[in-house]
Amino acid sequence: MNALTLNNITKTFNDFTAVDMLSLDVPEGSIYGFIGPNGSGKTTTIRMIMNILHPDTGDIQILGSPRASIDNDLVGYLPEERGLYKKMKIRELLQFYGQLKTGHSVLTDVDFWLDKLDLTEWASKKVEALSKGMSQKVQFIATVVSHPKLVILDEPFSGLDPVNTDVLLQAMLELQKNGSTVIFSTHDMATAEKVCDYVFMIHKGKKVLDGTLHEIQDKYGSDTLRIRCENKTSGLDRIAGVDKVHDFGQSQELRISPGSDPQDILKKLMEDNTVLSFELMKPSLHDIFVRIAGAEEVDHV
Amino acid sequence: MYKVIRLALREYYAAVRTKGFIIGLIMLPVFMSGSIIAMALLKDHVDIRERHIVVVDEAGQFSEMLQEAASIRNTQHIFDEEDSSQVKPVYHIEFVEVDTANIFVQLGALSDRVREGEIHAILHIGSSIVHPGEDPSNAFVNYHAESAALDDIRGWLRDPINNHLRRLRLEYAGIDEADIPDLFHWSWVTAKGLLEVDDDGNVTDAGASNEIRAIAVPLVMMMLMFMMSMMGAMPQLSAVMEEKTQRIVEVILGSITPFQFMLGKILGGLAVALTSTFVYLGGGTAFMQWRGFEAYIPYDILPWFIVNLVILLFMLGALMTSLGSVANDAKDAQSLSFPAMFPMMIPMFIMMPVLKEPLSTFATVMSLIPPFTPMVMTLRMASPVTIPAWQPWAGLAGVIIFTLFVVWGGARIFRAAILMQGVPLKFSNIMRWMTKG
Known about the structure:
The complex is a heterodimer. Chain A is an alpha/beta fold. Chain A folds into two domains: 2-217, 3-Layer(aba) Sandwich (Rossmann fold); 222-281, Alpha-Beta Plaits (2-Layer Sandwich), CATH 3.30.70. In chain A, 32% of the residues lie in helices and 29% in strands. Chain A has helices at residues 42-49, 90-102, 107-116, 132-144, 162-177, 189-195, 213-220, 262-272, 285-293, and strands at 2-13, 16-27, 31-35, 57-62, 65-66, 75-78, 150-154, 181-185, 198-203, 206-211, 224-229, 242-247, 252-256, 275-281. Chain A has a six-stranded mixed beta sheet with strand order 6-7-8-3-9-10, with helices on both faces. In chain A, strands 2-1-4-5 form a four-stranded antiparallel beta sheet, covered by helices on one side. Chain A has a four-stranded antiparallel beta sheet with strand order 12-13-11-14, with helices on one face. In chain A, a hairpin with a 2-residue loop joins strand 9 and strand 10 (206-211). Chain B has two domains: 51-179, D-Maltodextrin-Binding Protein, domain 2 (3-Layer(aba) Sandwich); 210-436, no CATH class. Chain B has 18 helices and six strands. Chain B has helices at residues 2-16, 19-32, 34-42, 63-76, 103-115, 152-173, 211-232, 234-245, 248-252, 258-290, 302-326, 330-340, 342-349, 351-356, 361-368, 373-382, 390-417, 427-436; strands spanning 51-57, 91-95, 121-125, 141-145, 196-197, 203-204. In chain B, strand 5 and strand 6 form a beta hairpin. In chain B, helix 7 (211-232) packs parallel to helix 11 and helix 15 packs across helix 16 (373-382). The radius of gyration of chain B is 31 Å and the shape is elongated. The A-B interface holds A 47, 50, 52-53, 72-73, 75-77, 79, 81-88, 96-97, 99-101, 103, 139, 142 and B 2-3, 6-7, 10, 14, 243, 246-256, 419.
């Protein structure tokens, strides 16, 4: 069964179409990544899933039932902007959010999650005393403390350092292990590549990518070379068969034109330079994102 | 309903568990009754410096009398009865020769002496004061001082001058004052309520109707309603605005509907106001009983007071939360708070005319206009008159219907506006959200 089904949903604000005939199936128990540039319609889509906004057309199903008949109690939601009562103590706040969902005390779960995310010593502190990263973790606990079947996280990693990002990723995997479906939006393509079973990309309100990472990458084929050279790397874009160069400083990614032979490019590279590493690979999610959001190869998709 | 109550409880605890609430609960009545307390504390601390009053007597009849009256007062009526200490100032009466041809020049020069602090006041008596009919334009007694309207001396002068005028007129008529021993006995009109007649025809004498019953009781009820509205409903506007701008609303709306959210906020504010109300009513009742003023407690009005207060808070709460959802920042909230206070401010403005004539057409109509009904009807009911029995019920029905409309319209505005950021605050937008959702 799908945890979530969007069927041709559209949402307009005055003359602006934020989401345009969007359809999506999110399998139960999966981790689904929503990616897309700023203003592409991610948050509007999530707000419609949360029943905060209503689609103009189309319908939404959650766990096999129409959205209108499903209680929000089954869905945990972490909005893009953090919203916590600053004057409340953290444990009380989490108990309040949990009680709003479940109708009973969730203090045992609150303590479990505070311990898991290393916040126990902050339990009796007020929210206003927390750093941005800690607030983010508290907001995450507020989302999951009620054991929701479907967890929707809008930009959950913003403001987190790499250590806390990993802590949150582990927590998401544990939620999945316990049977929850996790949907999250992010601009961090590396994270999405690491944990997502499926990736969905929205651009200008329309779906432009949907599937597993391999399925998406397969659509583009192996058109990327990752190289590392000993000396300077200027002039790579002048090599025949190289369409585009992404210079990352220590390494470079070259996109090769359709029909070009990677071996010819290697030979040309070795004429001017000492090549330390050379790898033919599929494009990264980051690269695919940039290609689409940069309006370079939408037609290709 | 559980979610609404849970949210209302959070609002309630967030408000009443603060030091500010406790301090406000204690300080509010202290501030409100501050002037009365200050007057009571300072009543024995009057300025007892001597007062020099210069009399310009164009009638030429008052010099001896006024000096004698001042002398009697200075020797008999300015000392404390228990410890004989001086508690009031000595009055010195000084007469000047009248310069009839240049009377205004003379008064001007005397006024300068008052400004310099040399004398306290000028009493100017017109030439025709004894027989006003002969020349009414000169039948006056003027008291000139820096603060003449509030000066105690002006009040003191009234009796000696008027008694002397009567004596002079008796003399003129050739009547001996001794022949009419009660001539200067003044009678006062006592204010009393209506007599009560029970089913057996027994008549109970009316109690004295005084200012406390006629003014203080309605005034206190009105002020209590006003204070509770300020405490329970007004803060909702900025609270909702803050929760909107801090994005707390979006988190909460992940668990409950906008209407539940709005209802929770209103009920939370209502609970805060009712807590304060019961503290004040309980404390006030206990105090009045302790001090022997139980007769002034309007027990019969209290249920109506509570009902009207609850409806007023509900109506204002819906108004404030919906307007709070429209506001984008503190400036917007401030702009909206002024018109939102009309249901509280208009009754305050018309309070005195309504109290003076509670049965007038004006008072009746105002008390039946729904936004004003809770306060104005309570004011009329707390006054000593008996208003027609149907009017409180008609007012109640009207205000309930109006409140339901406000909640309905407010909820539509709230739902549409609560997640909108940066939309300009325009009346047309508010109306569109209310009519079209």
